[in-house]
Amino acid sequence: MKTLYLLRHAKSAWDAPALPDHDRPLAGRGERAAPLVGRYLKEKGVLPDLVLCSTARRAQDTCALVLEAMGADQAPVERERRLYLCGAQVLLDRIREVRDEVSSLMLVAHNPDLHRLAWDLAGSGDPAAREALEEKFPTGACAILLFEGRSWREIAPATGRLLDFVRPRTLES
């Protein structure tokens, strides 16, 4: 079985309009939200074998904060420019390239790509999570999908089971 964690970068800052989109940092809200999601994932026992992360600053910062809160800051992270605003199909193609010895994969990227990919892959799963996912994939959210196959190459639309869809807003006390 394969477990896929689709993590959207946390809320980014827009206070420097001249800054290229790729270089935008996290906003204060994003800096607070990412560790909340990381702690939630830690409580669920999540420890990815591999992390694929967009090279956008906001994605890398989110990744670092989430992994640190999970106690997984030593997890192997591959930063790839092609994951930056690339489309759902490119993300799926990249997932299919992952080595089969990797059983749990975290992908840190952007919308609308992640929302489309998560919805396309989730053929079944928790009804409340599916309803929330259909509505919106907010910043900092993480969709957790389980696949029955033994190879990442087998992943296709509607073959995943949505186990959970965590959103920072639901974790704030």
Could you explain the architecture of this structure?
- With 173 residues, this protein is α/β, with parallel strands linked by helices.
- The protein has one domain: Rossmann fold.
- The protein has helices at 28-43, 57-70, 88-96, 113-121, 127-135, 168-171, and strands at 2-8, 50-54, 77-80, 104-109, 122-125, 142-147, 160-166.
- Strands 3-2-4-1-6-7-5 form a seven-stranded mixed sheet.
- Strand 2, helix 2 and strand 3 (77-80) form a beta-alpha-beta unit.
- It is globular.
- The N and C termini lie far apart (34 Å).
- The mean pLDDT is 93.
How are the SSEs ordered, and which strands pair?
Elements: E1 2-8, H1 28-43, E2 50-54, H2 57-70, E3 77-80, H3 88-96, E4 104-109, H4 113-121, E5 122-125, H5 127-135, E6 142-147, E7 160-166, H6 168-171
Parallel strand pairs: 1-4, 2-3, 2-4, 5-7
Antiparallel strand pairs: 1-6, 6-7
